[in-house]
Amino acid sequence: MATKEDTRKVLDWDALEVGERFPPFSYVLTQQMLDEYRRGVMDPEAAFPTIAHKVDVGAYNRAYRDHGSVNARCAFHCYNPPLPGKRITVHAWIADKYIRRGKTYTVTEAMSVDEDGRLLDRVITHEMKQPGEVGKKWG
User: Fold this and answer.
1) Which CATH number does 17-134 carry?
2) Which residues does the chain have with pLDDT short of 50?
3) How do the domains of the chain map onto residue ranges?
4) Which of 40, 60, 127, 131 is deepest in the core (most CB within 10 A)?
5) What integer pLDDT is reported at residue 54 of this predicted model?
């Protein structure tokens, strides 16, 4: 059985450029998607605020391959509830990178807008790029 070759770039943290943009992700939000989300969070009026989060790190993972990561921090900013039937486009990019306590981190940021140009949400995710370091201080 033939396997598809992984064409993603291997992460070179030193060469990673702050500001690098990923291809946008676009889809139409359906009433069914909204209903399923509301059932999942057990809130019949939930506004589906975590749209950008679904693709911020996903955009990174479609572009790069690495040894994994650990979510170190995530901030959600919700502006307008999405409307079923509207096309949503999510833009994601590398917002920052830094070293703390000898460990490398990447920061991805994403924002979603609907077809009318309304800003829906923004998410900023910090990831430590050495998942094997988790738990060492307790081990």
Assistant:
1) 3.10.129.10
2) none
3) 17-134
4) 60
5) 62
